[in-house]
Amino acid sequence: MLNFELYNPVKLIFGKGEIEKLSTLIPKESKVLVAYGGGSIFKNGIYDQVKTALQGFDVVEFGGIEANPYYETLMKAVDIIREQKIDFILAVGGGSVIDGVKFISAAVHFQGNPMDILHQRILFKEGADVVPFGTVLTLPATGSEMNSGSVISIKATQEKRDFGGSAMFPKFSICDPTVIASLPKRQLQNGVIDAYVHVLEQYLTYPHKGYLQDRIAESILQTLIEVGPQVVENPTDYTLASNFMWSCTMALNGLIQKGVPSDWATHMIGHELTALYNIDHARTLAIIGPNLFRVLFETKKEKLAQYGKRVFQLTGTEEEIARQAIEATVAFYHTMGMKTKISENAANIENTADFIVNRFEKRGWKALGERQNLTLDKLREIVELSY
Ligand code: NZQ
Ligand code: ZN
Prior knowledge:
6-stranded parallel sheet, 8 strands, Dehydroquinate synthase-like, alpha domain, 11% strand, 387 residues, Rossmann fold, alpha/beta, two-stranded antiparallel ribbon, binds zinc ion, binds 5,6-dihydroxy-NADP
């Protein structure tokens, strides 16, 4: 096992009806910016619950944060916070709103061009001058409610970039599984697959003798396989909803990544498909992930075999199990409504590989993956296999 430090200060409040605790979590006398997305919270009653819980606070609202939130939109909230002397932000939404609020929090007091936060991937360490924030999660998927990462899109350059740091953890997050009742099936499917791939990116590397990390990762995968197909049909079932939500948080709150190698290349490539074609985040991962395993099979096959045996109970030679594990993964993605080719999700895609390879080359991303063996040639192969 590798050396590690574990730091996660998020106060996580989980369960039915917990939104009413908001007033006890936000410092008294705060002037609060409530940030939200395109308006789903008005239809499903979450806005009313938040508004009731915030009685007595001085509240300003900022809506319209898009899925795959735009820098350009978020900067409007930064201006409001500066002008109106707001001292706490409450994100009410899914990963996009929460990530957007992380960026807003970081940008308000940032000395310099806020775009550099993304292009230079500035690290905001504990103690950095950021605006404190909390979250009310409305969509289980990203784990953003309990991690310190953020992914922001830039309209002007058609990019999706990430940043973070230990100052970017929410002060608290309220996770009430009943909020998923109003999620469209597509978003429920996305949530299951995003979380599933988060686990795979921290698990499917090479054997490292981190036995407990592997077992926790496999448990999250098995739980998602068990509840995923059911929860998209029955999102009002509390048992399914709560297990789904907690699996998503556990998949990316930092725990399973400690002491083990990880490989975020599927996400990095997937972000380009969202930036280019506006394909939902999770759907880009379902397209790229299996092809990445195929192209990097030689260096991932031991872990693929372990995954095949323990998660899918496959039998055969190590090589056979490893290959079947990729097919079983694709089958699960299909069960969850994913279309695993770019051409099934977008049109006019013939220049995709050129575009992504050029972009990664310019950024100096020429050796990704847990063994730094994902070269630009392999990248091209992965993207072309995904057409
Ligand atoms: O905007 P509204 O109207 O609220 O509608 C949203 C949005 O259209 C809707 N929705 C959310 N909660 C709902 C609801 N509809 C009905 N009922 C509810 N309870 O769902 C749509 C998608 O929301 P979004 O927040 O975009 O989805 P998700 O949580 O999947 O977030 C995706 C974003 O997170 C980033 C992605 O790149 C993408 O930008 N990620 C963030 C990560 C992190 N911070 O750690 C890691 C991930 O890998 C990911 O990259
Ligand atoms: Zn993701």
